[in-house]
Amino acid sequence: QVQLVESGGGSVQAGGSLRLSCAASGYTTGISCMGWFRQSPGKEREAVATIHSNTGNTYYADSVKGRFTISREYAKNVLYLQMNSLKPEDTAMYYCALVTLCSGLQTMNVRYWGQGTQVTVSS
Question: Are 30 and 110 spatial neighbours (Cβ–Cβ below 8 Å)?
């Protein structure tokens, strides 16, 4: 059974940084990309960044370009999201996911979700 466990969330002031981690365990096949998503109260869950399995290409939402970096440590099967210059509008629950159908930042079929880690940015 596949499990995704996020960590690294917390509370920071605007301008600060956090690094989220997502440890994947279990046997996975057919994964097109891994991604980070976020959801804040009253809003839909949105894709923040993806990294594609075959190419290693990365894609970002416009709102985080230049501030966030997605990366993957293949040997440990860990996904990261480095978040710099954080803004109050980045406050949300952040989730990692394994996706079987991706195109750029678009994720058409999320197969597995993590439980989420909260990020709170104060002004």
Answer: no
Please, which residues have CB within 8 angstroms of residue 20's CB and are 6 or more apart in sequence? Answer: 6, 7, 8, 9, 36, 80, 81, 83, 94, 96, 117, 119
> What pLDDT, on a 0 to 100 scale, did the predictor assign at position 10?
97
- Write phi, then psi, for 87 (nearest 5 degrees): -120, 155
Distance CA 99, CA 111 (A): 5
Mean pLDDT by 10 residues, the chain (123 residues): 95 98 88 95 96 95 98 92 98 96 91 96 96
